[in-house]
């Protein structure tokens, strides 16, 4: 019978205390593990989407809001810039690709993104991460699952989540709502779904892509109505024929331009160009998202981690107190073992093993708990923000944290083990 | 052979144990007898290394055990002594078989493949072949003391020390446990040192050592 077996028998003998101690360790580990998983995974997803574009150019305003709106389809647009600026930006020397986007309308709270169909052919490419063949990693977030990409005005390609949650299928018709909130709809102008995208784990899953021209046409109609003093009551029989309206692209507005440079190293000179030659704001997605993490999510994560570490310390104390009390009750047992020939080192070792077993089982249970929470939170984040969170991944940060907990658990065993080590055998054998 | 020579041990501010000379030879069965508080248990603890003398020599089979370090003492004790206590002192989380096995594991006097057959045979010998996998709290006091006897004899030890082994038993069970202990020590050819305050039990053993006066008050 090994010391492990002896330690296990003693833990089993006081199963209730042991279970409660393991539970406290598991809760601490689960809390931190889920926080780390969600943090790392969201960051990874955000970073993956940043692979797509080096710079986002938008109207003057908050660079963070610009990035959130143009890349992640969150928040409001910062305003409007002219399409002619886009045409000029596209011709800048350092620009490899540029795509205009116009956001404003929604359908069932899903963003309608006006853009041009070239964007569908453009793979997102990393400048730093290599794939297994040694090429820079590429992602294809616009792959058709059903149907086709849009070819003309009022055709829509929808993300997979949009299809799942709204029930839209190929051939379905829908009308957008002006803005994020319900500011009136374009009920007389119906989009037709012509394609559904494959799941990409990006915000594209929760977006509706239409030809930019559709957005302009709808808004031209909307503006006309406002100018004519019409109310937003669209129940009247005022018919509009969007095909009859002439759209002069150069006069139109967009909300941002997504820019891929010939090399990421041109970012800062290109930003200077934008600031000098355009009345626009350039934003580097990776910088903005890092700031978002550092300023907003950073403190939240730090507070949650602090809570987790406090729970770890409480767990360590409960391991120590539980073991210490158990050692006090078991002094006679320790003395018997010493009388049977066990050395003080063996007794010390058996107590340390008890602490280690409690910690190890706590860590494993906490890992499972943390993954469960991460999976559930991942489902929520995926449904709400379109970011795919892989709850089952385990990061280096988590492994380091587990090592810290294991060390703390072992450390918590030292005082009780020392108490056992120092026991006075003759006195403890006499005690009844 | 166990010898104590000029052994002194302080027990309190003005109380000390002193034994001029004590000797017991191999195979002997000896009662350490005397009234409560006379120093019987201290004598036993010194003889087995559970206590160390402040002065004097304790020699067991030629080894002066007071000079062994703590680890050597633990190992020596496990290899040379078997213990039977008044309150049995079985380890509650373990079965009868595991209690006997633990004694062999710590003392390391037998090959591991001998452990289980030896433990099983001893438990069968004390009439507990059907209780191998029972835990102490499911056994009667008599059964628990039988397990303790089996554990005390499990190794190749040469001395079994019994501290009031029948003190917690009813007279009928006490008699049968005494008989078993004497029988088994005779069969295994080991020395038996038994602490008792009961003169009739002391008289039932071939030799007796009167411990009266070993503990004395001293002036500070």
Report on the structure:
Chain A has 432 residues and is of the alpha+beta class. Chain A folds into 2 domains: 3-45 and 298-430, no CATH class; 55-283, no CATH class. Helices cover 52% and strands 16% of the residues of chain A. In chain A, the strands form 3 sheets. In chain A, strands 1, 3, 4, 7, 8, 9, 10, 11, 13 and 14 form a 10-stranded mixed sheet that branches. In chain A, strand 3 (95-107) and strand 4 form a beta hairpin. Chain A starts with a helix and ends with a helix. Chain B has 220 residues and is α/β, with parallel strands linked by helices. Chain B has a single domain (2-217), classed as Rossmann fold (3-Layer(aba) Sandwich), CATH 3.40.50.300. Chain B is 37% helix and 25% strand. Chain B has helices at residues 40-48, 70-80, 96-107, 112-125, 141-152, 171-188, 199-203, and strands at 2-12, 15-24, 29-33, 55-60, 63-64, 81-84, 159-163, 191-196, 207-210, 215-217. In chain B, strands 5-4-1-2-10 form a 5-stranded antiparallel sheet. In chain B, strands 6-7-8-3-9 form a 5-stranded parallel sheet, sandwiched between helices. The longest helix of chain B has 18 residues, at 171-188. The termini of chain B are far apart. In chain B, 48% of the residues are buried. The mean pLDDT of chain B is 87. At the A-B interface, helix 1, helix 9, helix 10 and helix 12 of A face helix 1, helix 2 and helix 3 of B.
């Amino acid at each position: 019978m090994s010391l492990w077996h002896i330690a296990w028998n003693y833990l089993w003998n006081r199963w209730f205390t042991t279970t409660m101690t393991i539970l406290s360790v598991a809760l601490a580990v689960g809390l931190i593990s889920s926080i780390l998983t969600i943090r790392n995974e969201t960051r990874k997803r955000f970073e993956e989407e940043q692979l797509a574009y080096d710079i986002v150019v938008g109207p003057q305003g908050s660079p963070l809001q610009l990035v959130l709106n143009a890349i992640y389809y969150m928040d409001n647009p910062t305003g409007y810039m002219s399409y002619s600026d886009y045409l000029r930006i596209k011709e800048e020397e350092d620009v490899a690709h540029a795509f205009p986007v116009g956001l404003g309308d929604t359908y069932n709270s899903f963003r309608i993104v006006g853009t041009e169909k070239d964007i569908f052919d453009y793979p997102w490419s990393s400048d730093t991460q290599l794939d297994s063949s040694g090429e820079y990693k590429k992602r294809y977030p616009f792959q058709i699952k059903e149907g086709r990409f849009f070819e003309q005005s009022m055709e829509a390609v929808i993300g997979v989540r949009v299809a799942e949650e709204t029930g839209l299928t190929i051939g379905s018709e829908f009308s957008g709502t002006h803005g994020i909130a319900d500011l009136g709809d374009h009920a007389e102008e119906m989009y037709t779904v012509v394609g559904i995208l494959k799941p990409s784990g990006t915000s594209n899953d929760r977006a509706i892509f239409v030809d930019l021209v559709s957005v302009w046409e709808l808004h031209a109609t909307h503006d006309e109505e406002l100018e004519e003093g019409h109310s937003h009551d669209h129940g009247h029989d005022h018919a509009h024929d969007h095909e009859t309206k002439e759209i002069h692209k150069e006069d139109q507005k967009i909300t941002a331009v997504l820019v891929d440079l010939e090399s990421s190293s041109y970012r800062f000179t290109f930003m200077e160009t934008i600031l000098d030659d355009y009345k626009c704001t350039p934003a580097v997605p990776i910088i903005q998202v890092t700031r978002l993490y550092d300023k907003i999510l950073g403190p939240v994560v730090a507070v949650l981690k602090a809570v987790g570490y406090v729970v770890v310390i409480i767990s360590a104390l409960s391991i120590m107190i539980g073991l210490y009390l158990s050692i006090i009750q078991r002094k006679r047992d320790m003395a018997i073992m010493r009388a049977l020939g066990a050395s003080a080192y063996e007794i010390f070792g058996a107590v340390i093993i008890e602490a280690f077993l409690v910690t190890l089982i706590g860590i494993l249970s906490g890992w499972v708990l943390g993954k469960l929470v991460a999976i559930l939170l991942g489902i929520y984040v995926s449904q709400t923000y379109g970011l795919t969170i892989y709850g089952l991944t385990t990061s280096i940060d988590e492994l380091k944290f587990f090592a810290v907990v294991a060390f703390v658990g072992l450390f918590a065993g030292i005082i009780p083990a020392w108490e056992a080590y120092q026991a006075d055998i003759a006195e403890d054998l006499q005690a009844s | 052979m166990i010898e104590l020579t000029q052994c002194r041990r302080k027990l309190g501010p003005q109380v000390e144990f002193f034994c001029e000379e004590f000797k017991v030879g191999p195979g002997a069965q000896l009662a350490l007898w005397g009234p409560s508080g006379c120093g019987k248990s201290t004598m036993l603890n010194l003889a087995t290394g559970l206590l160390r003398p402040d002065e004097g020599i304790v020699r067991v089979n030629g080894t002066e055990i007071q000079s062994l370090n703590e680890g050597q003492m633990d190992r020596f004790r496990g290899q040379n002594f078997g213990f039977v206590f008044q309150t049995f002192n079985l380890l509650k989380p373990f079965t009868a078989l595991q209690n006997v096995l633990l004694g062999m594991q710590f003392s390391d006097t037998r090959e591991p493949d001998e452990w289980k057959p030896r433990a099983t045979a001893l438990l069968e010998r004390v009439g507990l072949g059907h209780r191998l996998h029972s835990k102490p709290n499911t056994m009667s006091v008599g059964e628990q003391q039988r397990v303790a006897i089996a554990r005390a004899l499990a190794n190749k030890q040469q001395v079994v020390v019994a501290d009031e082994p029948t003190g917690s038993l009813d007279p009928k069970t006490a008699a049968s446990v005494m008989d078993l202990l004497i029988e088994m020590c005779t069969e295994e050819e080991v020395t038996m040192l038994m602490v008792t305050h009961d003169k009739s039990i002391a008289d039932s053993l071939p030799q007796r050592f009167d411990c009266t006066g070993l503990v004395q008050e001293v002036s500070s």
